[in-house]
């Protein structure tokens, strides 16, 4: 059988080489800085102008603001889902564009605003992303730290309960706790929890404090 030849354009070839040459750190400390960042979506031309923030390594920093103010976008810029039009985002003092993308994301644990669980057991949903076989004690410790262990052991089959599309229906908060346990188990240097709405009522405020204590 013959296959059509796929020719690489010179630009793509160069990009591959540049990708290989990028920095692949074994470890990052997790000091995040954004300086004078301008960013816009095509349909929303003015999300940030001259935005700056410093998130110290090992610190829990909450991004609080009204809906649409750009909290998720900041997480997206740190994960390099998008690049700023102007300004710079740095991790450990280095422009994040200098890092190999896969390597950078290995060090970042993101808990999205509305995490979806894949079809599989609770255990599989927590251990996703960790390369080695996970020790049961480590798994339970991560779930406890994420405040998820108590509700998990209360499920019909505990950690072996099936979840996902056709499985168990968990509340948004429970899914988020599983996602936080997953992020903790991955042991990244930067954890982004994209969960915060403007704390206009007491429940939101308590939730906000809870999340900040967790990560
Ligand atoms: N993919 C996109 N394309 C176009 N506009 C977008 C996109 N994502 C977000 N926006 C717009 O950019 C602005 C910032 O959005 P973002 O999601 O960062 O806000 P947020 O603070 O996380 O809001 P929420 O608290 O509701 O999650 C909003 O006006 C939003 O409508
Ligand atoms: Mg958001």
From TrEMBL:
One of its GO terms (molecular function) is ATPase-coupled transmembrane transporter activity. One of its GO terms (cellular component) is membrane. It comes from the Eukaryota. Pfam families: ABC_tran (PF00005). SUPFAM superfamilies: P-loop containing nucleoside triphosphate hydrolases. InterPro entries: ABC_transporter-like_ATP-bd, ABC_transporter-like_CS, P-loop_NTPase, Type_1_exporter. Residues 32-214 form the ABC transporter domain. PANTHER family: ABC TRANSPORTER B FAMILY MEMBER 15, ATP-BINDING CASSETTE SUB-FAMILY B. This is ABC transporter domain-containing protein. It comes from Escallonia rubra. The lineage of its organism: Eukaryota, Viridiplantae, Streptophyta, Embryophyta, Tracheophyta.
């Amino acid at each position: 059988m013959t296959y059509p030849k796929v020719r690489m354009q010179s630009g793509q070839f160069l990009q591959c080489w540049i990708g290989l040459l990028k920095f692949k750190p074994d470890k990052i400390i997790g000091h995040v800085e954004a300086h004078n960042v301008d960013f816009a979506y095509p349909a929303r031309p003015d999300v940030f102008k001259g935005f700056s923030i410093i998130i110290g390594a090992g610190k829990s920093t909450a991004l609080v603001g009204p809906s649409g103010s750009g909290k998720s976008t900041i997480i997206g810029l740190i994960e390099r889902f998008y690049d700023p039009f102007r300004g710079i985002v740095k991790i450990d003092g280095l422009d994040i564009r200098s890092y190999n993308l896969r390597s950078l994301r290995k060090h970042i644990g993101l808990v999205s605003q509305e995490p979806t669980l894949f079809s599989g057991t609770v255990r599989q949903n927590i251990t996703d992303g960790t390369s080695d076989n996970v020790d049961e004690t480590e798994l339970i410790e991560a779930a406890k730290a994420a405040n998820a262990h108590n509700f998990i052991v209360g499920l019909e089959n505990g950690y072996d309960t099936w979840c996902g599309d056709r499985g168990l229906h968990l509340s948004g908060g429970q899914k988020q706790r599983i996602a936080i346990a997953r992020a903790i188990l991955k042991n990244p240097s930067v954890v982004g929890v994209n969960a915060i709405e403007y704390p206009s009522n007491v429940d939101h405020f308590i939730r906000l404090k809870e999340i900040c204590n967790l990560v």
